[in-house]
Amino acid sequence: MPLWSRIAVSALLLVLAAVGMTSTLQAFAARRAILEQARAGAHGVAEVLAKATAFAEAVPPAVEAEIGEQMLTQARLLAQLVAVAEGAGVPREDLLARLRGIAGPGQTEFLATDDGGVAIYETDPAGEGFRFSPDASTQPQAHVFHRLLTGETPSVIQESRRRELDGRVFKYVGVPGVDGSRIIQVGMPATFLERLDTALGLRRLVGEVVVGDVREVRILDARSSPLVTRIVDANGNPTESAPPLDQDDARIVRESIASGRPAGRVEGAMVRVAAPVLRADGATGGAVLVGLATRAGGDLWRWELLAGLLSSLLIGLPAIFVGRWLARSTTESVRLSTAVAESIAAGDLSGTVPPGGDDEAGRLLDGVGRMSAALRETVSRLQAAGTRVTEVESDVSVALARQERIVRGFSGSVADVSGAASQISSNAEQLLDATGTVTLAAREAARVADDGRHGLERMSESMRQLDEVMNAFTRKLATIRQRAGGINAVVTTIAKVADQTNLLSVNATIEAEKAGEAGRGFRIVAQEIRRLADQTALATKDIERMVRDMQSAVASGTMEMDRFRNEVSTRIQQVTEVSRQLAGIVAPVQSVTHALDQVHDGMENQNSGARQVRDSLDRLRAGAGQSASAIEAFVTGMNQLRASVTDLNDELTKLRIVPDPSKD
């Protein structure tokens, strides 16, 4: 073989070897540059998503917690209002109408129960008459409020959830009553969470990020459980259903959560990066897993090898120039891609990427340009969201300042009213003492009058008994006079018999004289009979005289007894009249005493009500102070939220999305 041929062959072989080696090295360098660029871009996307996720997760719980404290303050004010209204005697329907006017249609719900847990004030008609039960099986959500009746807990703040009544998402808080055992509950529709999720929700954020080469985004909690997932399937359609994490993805997620730094790996044509989600307190709350497609690198690798082989076999010596030209064009595209990747890593998203060619390097450059545009659009949206959050925070701060002024003014008014209530309570106590003294005097007068009335009644009863005795005695005297008349009749009969006996004895004496000695004994008997008849006549005269004297005495006694009975009857009538008049005096005195008792009881109730109003106003003033403190705490939370938004905006500001005119 001629020398030139050997030289040509050697040169050709060297050229072919050089071309092949150069193509191989360029392919490896291009693939490494693409992978490093993809890794840097994936790290940037993952870190931005992690910060945005931490922010989006921190806002709703913080807002709900502050709203819960505000609702708790409303519940305490409602408890004071119900206590004051009932103490003032406001009718139930009037108080319920005022509460419904405050609540508004379909907005805040107010509920107050009695000491048995039955709702007596309910602005939502669907819950009228609702009874709270401690049984969790019958009332899974409402049973926790029953502990307010027994004093087991000072307050209840329930997370937003779908209620059993109609499936609407509500948030409820409750406090016990201030004037007794009762439940005071305030409810609010949780539409603010839906609005926050719509404006700053993770699903919207992930849906806007998964475009172009960003093929997969998963937001995981601290236990690697998926919260939000969005994947582009093989057909190019985004979906939220995804298979569970494989071992390699789970490993980099655990490494990221444990170390607090991003971790990644390369899987074929996909770069997968996990970044930790850091909360405001520095704790790790989960991770964000991002999958970025790098199929252009694989295509570039294959085409570079094929181009080197073809150039080595078909072109020969001219392949040196072709290889040089190809290497130069490839290197230029890779250089531009690397420059864009370094700009993105440095936070500059404002650079423009020139259009690439139709080869792999050109497609790689086009892919880098699309990724840069997608990141630029994402950062723009995040900046707009930060601006909206800042505006909302400003509006909330202004509203809180206005509410704080109102609450402090309300506290001053309550202090003035409390002083007036204290003065009223002091006057009521003095009036209560005065009415107590008057009531005691009236009771003593009523007692004395009542004792006199009872004494007159007993005297009247004794005189009536005496009158009855006199009537009985008069009847006995009449009976005696009647019996005396009977005695006179008997005495008259005896006198007549004595006269007849005397006549018979005279006749017997005459006959005895006529009989002579034979009638001597009969004559003695006749004489003795005449003597007895004379004695009987004398005795009958004495008896008749005694009966007349007795009848005269009885008649005189009867007259005296009738006169005395008439006098007693007159005195009984007088005593009865005096007793009746005294009873007429006692009844008004007792009525006055009863009225004074009612006045005294009313003054006691008024004094107790005044003390309750004073105590309620003191508690209301304390509640207003607590409300002001809660507003200050909420303002502090809003300031922290403003600081977080400012930090996020500062981080986003570092990502420049508008070209710098000084570099033109």
Rg, Å, rounded: 62 Å
* Chain-averaged pLDDT: 71
CATH superfamily of the domain at 430-625: Methyl-accepting chemotaxis protein
What top-tier CATH class of the domain at 430-625 fits best?
Mainly Alpha
User: What's the total number of strands?
Assistant: 12
CATH architecture of the domain at 430-625, by name, is: Orthogonal Bundle
The SSE string, one letter per element, is HHEEHEEEEHHEEEHEEEHHHH
Distance between the termini: 60 Å
What are the segments in which pLDDT stays under 50 over at least 5 consecutive residues? 1-8
- Total helical segments: 10
Helix fraction, binned, reads over 70%
Q: The biggest beta sheet, please? A: 6 strands, antiparallel
Class computed from helices, strands and strand pairing: alpha+beta
* Proportion of strand residues: 5-15%
**Overall morphology:** rod-shaped
CATH fold assignment of the domain at 430-625: Helix Hairpins
